Structure formats: C-alpha cells, structure tokens
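Section 4.2 – Deliverable D4.2 (structural model, holo form)

The reporting period included a commitment to supply a predicted holo structure for the target in complex with copper (II) ion. Inputs used:
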Amino acid sequence: MIVIAISVLGIIVGYYFLAASNPSLIIRLVTTNPPVEDGLILPQNEKRSWDPDHIEFTVGVPVILVVVNNDDIESHQFSIPELNIETEPIPPFESTTIEFTPTKSGTFIFLDPRPEETYTYVDYRGETVNQLVDHSIELGEIVVNP
Ligand SMILES: [Cu+2]
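Output (structure tokens):
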C-alpha cells in the first residue's frame, strides 16, 4: 500500500515539474523553391522560413533551443532582439544550441539579423548565378507567457 502511495505521489510530482518546465525545442530554417514557368527552379525565387515560426515559453523558466540551418548554400543566424539573444552565423546543414531564460513576458519577433548579401555559384544548369539573399523575410513570433 505504501509502495503504491509513493508511486502515485512520484507521478504527481513528476507531472508537476514537467508541466512547469519549458520543453527543449528544435527550430529549423527551411527553404522552398517552387518551379516557375518551363519547370525551371530559379534561386531568385527561393522562399525561406522558420519551422516552427511561432514558439511559446514561460517567463523565468530556462529554455534550450536547437537552431538548425537546413539551407544547402547560405549561412543563417537566429536572433530575438528584445531578449538579447543572438547566435553566431550557422553554416549550411549545421546547428547551434542556445540556452536562456526568458526575462520578460510579451510577444516578440525572432529573425535572421544578417544583412542582405549576394551568393555567387554555378547552378544545376551550369550557369553562374548571383543570388541576392534578403534575410529580413525570415521572421517568426515568440510568445513569453507570464
Ligand atoms: Cu537568413
């Protein structure tokens, strides 16, 4: 009987701590590039976004965030300016882990703070491409609950 009571108590206490903690989370920078006319896939039409692009945490509870760059060519960076969070540039197919504790509640944006840049490479047609990369389209929202 005592064993059962201790087990039930353990489950309740365990659930309480799980419910009170922020989960560790993986967030990816992903690209999509739908073909245009003639079936051509042009780098200039690339779309980039964060997956997920909406995340929620609780103020005062530590967060582990793994940021993955799934882009095959460009480096990207992750920042939550209002919480003073910013990673180093993340090369293609690499990731970085950031640990922080949200210090204030509210709704904030997260983004890639890198300046506009041009990548030059030879594409699948054998043509040299100068791809203008505007990182300001990579936006997401973080809600920090009280
Ligand atoms: Cu970027």
